[in-house]
Predict the structure.
Amino acid sequence: MVIKMDFHVLTLFPEMVSQGLNTSITGRAIDKGLISLNTVNIRDFSKDKHQRVDDYPYGGGAGMVIQAEPVYESYTYLINQINKKYDNKPDIKNKQTRVIYVTPQGPVFNQSMAQELSKEEDLIFLCGHYEGIDERVLEMIVTDYISIGDYVLTGGELPAMVMIDAIARLIPGVLNNDTSSEFESLHDNLLEYPQYTRPEVFQGRRVPEILLSGHHAKIEKWRREQAIQRTLNRRPDLLPEANLTPKEREYLRQLQQ
Ligand code: ADE
């Protein structure tokens, strides 16, 4: 189990990432030292006198391409920084730090990927812009290509922030309630059951009676059934992978008829 996770972001817009993640729950996790966020500006590694990092694509076509050199140099700087942390921990030092290129050209990020990535000590996110990054440097440094969905954004910063948020909340202590990251949407591949709070009646709508009964076992059963119903109605594609008891499978069969 990782006790602290260091996120590193290679980007042309470091303030976008740090301002977003220094807020709310991820911000508090950074303050508490449970995670850290290290942004590296690719532009700082440009050797051009105007600090340009992009150029026209070979072969022609629209848009600009980020050059290999500033990306490679910023990566090397970062890897040296990371390795220094582990000077007297050779087992970690020799481990390759995963470099995630956020791009629509990858498998779509999901909860089990978040879980798997939350086991790393360090993660590097590489954010592109314009028409992309010179393929040669991607071949040299990227270990994972990950998308956040089948649509195209203007840059990789928002996807990197989405992934960092989803991973960070799985680190112990980041959420106030230690167990809540397990017991909610997409745990067991089911959507979350509906939630209610005071008042008991809102504009004529009552809170389901069972929730006021104090009968914990019955409430638990009702919530599981609601989760199954909701998943069937809203995300039936999740159900084949859902972790259901034989009784719950029977309940689902009845709903489907
Ligand atoms: N960059 C641009 N669009 C993206 C997407 N959908 N996912 C990840 N990175 C992206």
Remarks:
- The first helix runs from residue 14 to 21.
